[in-house]
Design brief:
Length: about 70
């Protein structure tokens, strides 16, 4: 995390540099600037975060699925 950057800014910056296509429709767990877990269930991601990273404040993000386009 860059000096002066808060946790949410670091999370946003990490997401900007990631290829999110493989995570469409999933919940992501970011610790620092790294995605350490992804799942369809927000509850499973939160449980993973609290069991594996109890001292960290996790960043949970849902990557939206692409909207179908009618032509």
């Amino acid at each position: 995390m860059t000096k002066g950057m808060n946790r949410m800014e670091a999370c946003f910056e990490a997401l900007q540099s990631m290829d999110l296509t493989k995570y469409e429709g999933k919940w992501l767990l970011l610790i620092g600037e790294e995605c350490v877990f992804a799942d369809d269930s927000e509850q499973r991601v939160l449980e993973y975060a609290t069991s594996r990273y109890p001292a960290e404040v996790p960043c949970l993000v849902r990557v939206p699925s692409p909207e179908p386009v009618a032509v």
